[in-house]
Amino acid sequence: ARAAARRMAWLLGEKPGGSVGHTVRGERVVGRDTRVEVVTTGVLLQRLQRDQELSGVDAVVLDECHERHLDADTAAAFLWDVRETLRPELRLVAASATTDAQGWARLLGGAPVVEAEGVSHPVEVVWAPPARPVRPPHGLRVDPALLAHVAAVVRRALAERTGDVLCFLP
Predict the structure, then answer these.
(1) Is 101 within 8 Å of 115 (Cβ atoms)?
(2) What angle do CA 64, 141, 148 make, to 5 degrees?
């Protein structure tokens, strides 16, 4: 939520807390001019418990809706129920680059599907797990052995291939 809000604010030439803010557990960066608030699923569920009508909210975007987990599914179910019973004008948007769009459209009551075709680029997938399990030593958030492994794999990829490198890490 923080990173998404920062990026949106940056694109608008603003700082977070202006037109775009965010709320995560223990941190709220919004102002009186905030029109878009990026929240975590947990924060959304807490708000739904306190205010079932989501007063002051016109639309909710469920980004990366393909990432199925209990909180996200619960939030989607609550939002659907709120719209069906209390707030028929509440706009719900399910966004994902990889999900079953027609299934979500049916779930949202026959919602229109908007497709934005992007440019595809050839991708070579290289699976390079570390030789041993990585566990951060006491007091550290990341195992230094993992960092060394990632650095070595990236250096090797850059030396052997042209183009860019994208790493997915645990």
Answers:
(1) yes
(2) 95
- The CATH number of 2-107 is 3.40.50.300
Under 8 Å between Cβ of 55 and 32? no
pTM of the shown model: 0.71
Q: Do residues 47 and 78 lie in contact, with contact meaning Cβ atoms separated by under 8 Å?
A: no
DSSP designation for 136: P
DSSP-assigned beta bridge partners for residue 59: 91
Tell the residue number behind the tokens 């209990």, with chain if given.
Answer: 70
Q: Where does the pLDDT of residue 13 fall: very low under 50, low under 70, confident under 90, or very high at 90 and above?
A: very high
The structural domains of the chain, with segments of one domain joined by +, span 2-107, 121-170
Task: Look at residue 121 and give its three-state secondary structure.
Answer: coil
Rg (CA), the chain: 20
In the sheet that 20-24 helps form, which strands lie side by side, from edge to edge? 27-29, 20-24, 36-39
In what helix (H) or strand (E) does residue 22 lie, and over which residues does it extend? strand 20-24
Structure tokens at 145: 């052995």
Pairing label, strands 36-39, 20-24: parallel
